[in-house]
Specification:
Distance between the termini: 21 Å
Shape: elongated
Number of helices: 13
Strand order of the largest sheet: 2-1-4-5-6-7
Radius of gyration: 71 Å
Strand content: 5-15%
Helix content: 55-70%
Oligomer: single chain
CATH superfamily of one domain: P-loop containing nucleotide triphosphate hydrolases
CATH class of one domain: Alpha Beta
Length: about 700
């Protein structure tokens, strides 16, 4: 039941306008173009974002000159009695979109159910409304809401009416199911049509499979032949490699002998060089003993020179100490003499102020001068002696340096002689050892040749014989014979390696070719299996098609049965409401044409029903249309509220009064009926009267509730 309607700037309702509805019959009356139908349009807009006049266009719903429109509908759920509030708002501008919010009253506050602010879509709102109100947009426009001048549309039938009634009464379920199975049958037919091409494909695949199998068998035989050649080449190559290994063993022994000879020759050369170097050193001194005697003599001379140098350096030190004493005394005498000379020309002493006796001073000066001369002579003698001693010291230092250098040279010669003597001994030992080792190498060559002789002679005796018979000490001859047989072995080894590699390449190529054919065969077998599976499916499709045909037939029969029963029920209910709506029933029966869905009625005295549109007196077509609306609402269980927009327009006075009275009675059954009508019609039986007018000064429709 709708309890409250609030409009803001909706079409001709400028500003905010509120309508409160009551249970039972609610009359909405007013002059033409006052805005009565707009109230129903507002409800339709709030519920479905749609209006009968403008369809899905919502921008024109905004009152001219305003920035937005908003409609709020409050309603209760018939099943639970819970109160809901639905708000829909449209901002101005061509690119604007509507926003909605569905809320549920919980205690003293509203809780959001769905809202565009929370990301909900229109489909979410439609789903919630269907659960609460038990109808969708189609049921609302065809059963709940009867639009002005649209009453007769349902009773006149036609393709669109048939589609709407079938959908409302659920008759499309069977037809839709039958259609689905028909489409399935078409798909099955398409698959069955592939059977012939699949069988041809299977024949071709089987032929190709046999070709692959023959090819793989042939390739297996070729692979066996190549593997046989490969094994033969491998054995030959292994035999040649063994011969080569024996030759390499002989070569290593020859190389060892050659290396031993080279080492012995180098050791002998080092021994000779060491002996020659030793003889060169000894030749200069006559013998090592002479060198040692000369070294001892030079050492003694060095020590004597060193002792004499120490003595001279001691005398120089003592002399320099004495000379320092003479210099100090001479300085003192010079200073005293200078002072006495200064006093001799004065009458009094400048230091003590005593009178000066020239004679005494003169005597003192002479004495000091004599003393100074004596000291000067002694100093000169000492300096001369110092020069002589210094010259001797330098001579001794030079002699010591020369002797030291001579000693160093002699010591180096002694060390070199001793070193060369050690080298001669070491090289002699090394030479003797290498000489003994050479014999071992010769024996090794003989042993290795003897061990390899059997394989080498079995290989190629004419080439192996020179190597086996060459003298074991003749390295050049051994190497020459070895190189000849090695060249032959390497050549033959290369030949067999190339044959082996060629066989391997051929084997790999044939194996790859065989693997490719095996892979192709596996893929083909998979495709054959798929083709066979498809053919098996087609067999099942044939069986399924027969089942689909039977199901289609059953659904068609069900559809016809449903149509017959539901149309009969609708006709019965329509006639029931017709008898309630008119004061006196002038029609004894009616039916709904099963083909066109047109309502046909049978007047008194007529043998058969006729289309209701052929009877125009008293607004009878409108009465039957209204009866059908009630019948549809009852069948669909829509007992919450109904909206009728001027259904009495074409009815005569008698029928109009009867219609209003029946609507009053029906409001007890349907809970709430909102009825738009002319002034004064039905006021006596209405539970609530709402007057609508238009104020030109305010440029807005106005709502007033009668007390």
């Amino acid at each position: 039941m709708i309890t409250r309607l609030l409009l803001k700037n909706f079409r001709q309702y400028r500003g905010t306008h509120e309508v409160v509805f009551q249970p039972g019959l609610n009359l909405i009356q007013g002059s033409n173009d006052a805005g009565k139908s707009t109230l129903f349009h507002a409800i339709c807009f709030a519920l479905f974002n749609y209006t009968p006049v403008l369809g899905a266009a919502t921008q024109p719903l905004i009152t001219q000159g305003e920035l937005f429109t908003e409609v709020i509908v409050e309603f209760t759920a018939l099943a639970t009695g819970e109160l809901y509030r639905l708000t829909r708002r449209r901002e101005g501008g061509r690119r604007g979109s509507t926003q909605f919010s569905l809320e549920k009253r919980v205690g003293d506050h509203w809780e959001t159910v769905v809202s565009t602010a929370k990301g909900s879509k229109e489909i979410d709102l439609r789903r919630e409304l269907l659960g609460i109100l038990k109808f969708d947009k189609r049921a609302f426009l065809n059963a709940v809401y009867s639009q002005q001048k649209e009453f007769v549309r349902l009773v006149r039938g036609g393709v669109e009416v048939k589609k709407e009634i079938d959908a409302l009464l659920g008759m499309t379920i069977a037809s839709n199911a039958a259609l689905c199975f028909k489409e399935l049958s078409k798909e099955v037919d398409e698959k069955i049509a592939k059977e012939e091409s699949l069988r041809k494909l299977l024949d071709e695949q089987v032929k190709t499979r046999n070709t692959y199998i023959d090819s793989i068998r042939r390739q297996a035989q070729e692979i066996m032949e190549v593997r046989s050649k490969l094994a033969e080449a491998g054995l030959k190559l292994a035999s040649v490699k063994k011969v080569h290994d024996e030759i390499l063993t002989v070569k290593r022994s020859i190389d060892g002998l050659k290396a031993a000879i080279t080492q012995m020759e180098k050791a002998f050369l080092r021994l000779q060089q060491a002996k020659e170097g030793l003889e060169g050193f000894i030749e200069e001194y006559g013998s090592k003993e002479s060198l040692l005697t000369l070294l001892k003599s030079e050492q003694d001379r060095f020590h004597a020179t060193e002792e004499e140098l120490k003595r001279v350096e001691g005398e120089i030190s003592r002399l320099r100490s004495a000379l320092d004493g003479f210099r100090k005394s001479l300085g003192y005498v010079e200073q005293t003499l200078k002072e006495r000379l200064d006093v001799s020309s004065k009458t009094t002493c400048p230091k003590c102020g005593q009178p000066v006796d020239p004679l005494i001073v003169r005597a003192e000066v002479e004495k000091l001068e004599k003393q100074w001369k004596d000291l000067k002579n002694e100093l000169d003698k000492g300096l001369e002696e110092e020069r002589k001693l210094e010259a001797k010291r330098r001579s001794l230092v030079e002699a010591k340096q020369a002797i030291s250098e001579r000693l160093s040279s002699l010591r180096r010669d002694v060390e070199n002689i001793e070193k060369l003597e050690g080298e001669v001994k070491r090289y002699q030992v090394e030479f003797e050892a290498l000489k003994a080792g050479l014999e071992d190498r010769v024996k090794e060559v003989e042993e290795v040749r003897a061990k390899a002789s059997f394989k080498l002679m079995n290989y190629k005796p004419q080439i192996a014989s020179p190597l086996l018979k060459a003298p074991p000490r003749d390295v050049d001859l051994l190497e020459s014979a070895y190189k000849r047989i090695e060249e032959e072995v390497i050549r033959e080894k290369g030949v067999w390696e190339e044959r082996l590699n060629s066989s391997r390449r051929s084997l790999e190529s044939k194996l790859n070719e065989q693997r490719s054919n095996i892979k192709l065969l596996k893929d083909l077998l998979g495709r054959i299996k798929e083709t066979q599976a498809e053919l098996a499916k087609i067999g099942r499709y044939k069986v399924a098609k027969e089942g689909f045909m039977r199901i289609q037939l059953a659904y068609r029969e069900l559809e016809e049965a449903l149509k017959s029963q539901l149309l009969n029920l609708l006709a019965i209910k329509t006639y029931f409401w017709y008898t309630r709506l008119v004061g006196e029933a002038k029609y004894v029966g009616l039916r709904i044409n099963p083909e066109s869905y047109e309502l046909e009625v049978q007047p008194l005295g007529f043998p058969e029903p006729q289309p209701v549109k052929s009877f125009s007196g008293g607004g009878i077509e409108t009465v039957f249309a209204l009866a059908m609306r009630f019948a549809l609402a009852e069948i669909l269980g829509l007992r919450d509220f109904l909206l009728f927009d001027e259904p009495t327009d074409a009815a005569d006075t008698k029928n109009r009064d009867a219609i209003v009275n029946v609507m009053h009675e029906a409001s007890q059954f349907f809970n709430q009926i909102l009825l738009i009508t002319h002034h004064g019609v039905g006021v006596e039986v209405a539970a609530h009267v709402i007057n609508v007018s238009y104020d030109s000064a305010r440029k807005s429709s106005l709502i007033e509730v009668e007390a």
